Amino acid sequence: MNPPPTKIPRLPPRRRLALALATAAVAAAPGPALAQGEGDLPNLTPAPQGTSEPSSPEPAPKPSPAPAPRANGRLPDTGADARVLGLVGVALLLTGVGLRMRTADERF
User: Fold this and answer.
1) By the 8 A CB rule, do 63 and 69 touch?
2) Which helix (H) or strand (E) segment is 24 a member of?
3) CB 90, CB 98: distance < 8 Å
């Protein structure tokens, strides 16, 4: 049985251009608006039948003010620890480099 090829064949220029354009189109497309709640929708209830005047829309609730900082002058900690995210990134990078070196041809 023949060993598997070690080189990945290059794509024709037209196919590379088509893949690049498709990737750019997907990346440029707007994402879905996931943060919509019931308060964002207009009032769609029909007006009562006995009135001739249109009912006035209910006033929108006022947004609550931002929470005040703590007494020590710091905001509450709501994010992930940046050191852990950095370590995960370095681990992923080293894993990728290790896999690449393991599958690369020796050229020494």
Assistant:
1) no
2) helix 13-28
3) no
Within 8 A by CB and 6+ apart from 27, the residues are none
Reading the chain (108 residues) residue by residue, the pLDDT tens digits are 666 656 777 778 888 899 999 999 998 888 776 665 555 556 666 666 665 555 566 777 777 776 655 567 777 777 888 899 999 999 999 999 999 888 877 765
Report whether 64 contacts 57 (CB < 8 A). Answer: no
How far apart CA 14 and CA 16 sit, in angstroms, is 5
Confidence (pTM): 0.32
Distance CA 102, CA 99 (A): 5
Q: Which residues contact 70 (CB under 8 A, 6 or more apart)?
A: 76
Amino acid identity, residue 57? P
User: Under a CB-based contact definition with an 8 Å cutoff, are residues 57 and 43 in contact?
Assistant: yes
